[in-house]
């Protein structure tokens, strides 16, 4: 299962379409409690985090992953917000990309993970 943490409805539809094209199950939420609940109930192979989503405490979300070695975490955000991207890297995300990079590489990411 893929879990997408975002409030961006337009971009989430693009990610959903790409996941469904690959016959992947995807869950989308922007609420930290719902995200944590999903992580506790389902095995998440890929966690995608939109760093622009307010209310998503990155450290709490990462700590809620029950089996960290089974979950690949990708965070993405605006390329101009370097401090936020650096903080995501330091928090333990496996891959941190600008939003443009994430958008361009989405198909390859889904094929790989």
Structure description:
- The longest helix is centred in the last third of the chain and has 14 residues, at 99-112.
- Helices cover 47% and strands 20% of the residues.
- The protein has helices at residues 9-21, 32-41, 58-63, 82-91, 99-112; strands at residues 2-5, 26-29, 46-50, 72-77, 95-98.
- The protein has 113 residues and is of the alpha/beta class.
- Strand 1 (2-5), helix 1 and strand 2 form a beta-alpha-beta unit.
- The chain has a five-stranded parallel beta sheet, with helices on both faces.
- The protein is globular and about 35 Å long.
Q: What's a concise summary of this model?
A:
The chain has helices at residues 9-21, 32-41, 58-63, 82-91, 99-112, and strands spanning 2-5, 26-29, 46-50, 72-77, 95-98. It is of the alpha/beta class and 113 residues long.
Please describe the biggest sheet, giving its number of strands, its sense, and whether it closes into a barrel. 5 strands, parallel
Assembly category = single chain
Average predicted local confidence, pLDDT: 94
Widest beta sheet: strand line-up = 2-1-3-4-5
Put simply, the count of helices is 5
The arrangement of helices and strands along the chain is EHEHEHEHEH
Query: Which consecutive residue ranges, at least 5 long each, have pLDDT under 50?
Result: none
Helical residues, percent = 40-55%
Q: Per the principal axes of the C-alpha atoms, what is the gross shape?
A: globular
Separation of termini?
10 Å
The count of strands amounts to: 5
Structural class: alpha/beta
- Radius of gyration over alpha carbons? 13 Å
Q: What percent strand?
A: 15-25%
């Amino acid at each position: 299962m893929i879990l997408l943490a975002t409030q961006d409805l337009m971009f989430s539809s693009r990610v959903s379409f790409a996941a469904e094209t690959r016959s992947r199950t995807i869950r989308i939420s922007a609420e930290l409690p719902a995200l944590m609940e999903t992580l506790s109930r389902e095995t998440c192979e890929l966690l995608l985090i939109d760093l622009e989503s307010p209310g998503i405490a990155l450290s709490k979300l990462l700590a809620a992953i029950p089996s960290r070695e089974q979950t690949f975490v990708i965070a993405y955000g605006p390329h101009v917000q370097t401090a936020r991207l650096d903080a995501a890297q330091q928090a333990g995300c496996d891959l941190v990309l600008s939003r443009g990079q994430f958008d361009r590489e989405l198909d390859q990411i889904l094929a790989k993970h």
